[in-house]
Design goal:
Order of helices and strands: HHHHHHHEEH
Shape: globular
Number of strands: 2
Structural class: mainly alpha
CATH architecture: Up-down Bundle
Helix content: over 70%
CATH topology: Rhopdopsin 7-helix transmembrane proteins
Number of domains: 1
Strand content: under 5%
CATH class: Mainly Alpha
Number of helices: 8
Radius of gyration: 18 Å
Amino acid sequence: MLSSYFSLNTVMELLCLITAIYCLYNDKQKVWHLMIVLLFATYFGETFGRYIYLNKLAASNHFVYNTLLIVQVSIFHIMFAHLFRQYNISKVPLLAGLAILSIKYVYDVFNKSFWIFSQDTYTLLSVLIVLYGFIFYYYLLTDDSYIDLKYSSAFWWVSGIMIFCFGSMACNIFEERLNHVMVSGHHLAYYIFRVLNVFLYGFWSFSFICRKWLSPAQGNMPPPRF
């Protein structure tokens, strides 16, 4: 059934994708167009993975998420490189992190299997994203120029991914305990990740809205007073 392919996660991804297309398609900074690519890949990957699982087309659908992981790692690092450049932040942490992730990913694929999700690489990515986020926050908050965070697309984009990755790390650390807590037939982590997805895609959607309408730097209409 068609409804089997829709969940809170996929609905949030689809809404965020639609928002990204509408708000970012004509964005002057082309790097933001990559968010449309990322969200399309994420939505398509989730749906295709679900299709494989429901129709038992393969022993595992992990290869879909391993492929998606490459896209995520690449675009996340490009986005942070763009944000770092605005504050003249060294790219050394990004280059070092990308090198470590690449080595870890290749190691997992060759020593385990491309058909088994590289959980360690994903966890390492979460740790690095949190680190990048703190670096960005430090330079953002110590910048001499005035920035209204309510309308800062960069702030909301980083905040969304920071909350998601930090929550993911916490769930991985306490995975064993969370798996013992059942709520309405699901592990507690099931609900935590859905809340994290709401934060991620909600913050990202507002970030895209800021890019189109609320950011004075975009040269569009001035931000409204709330």
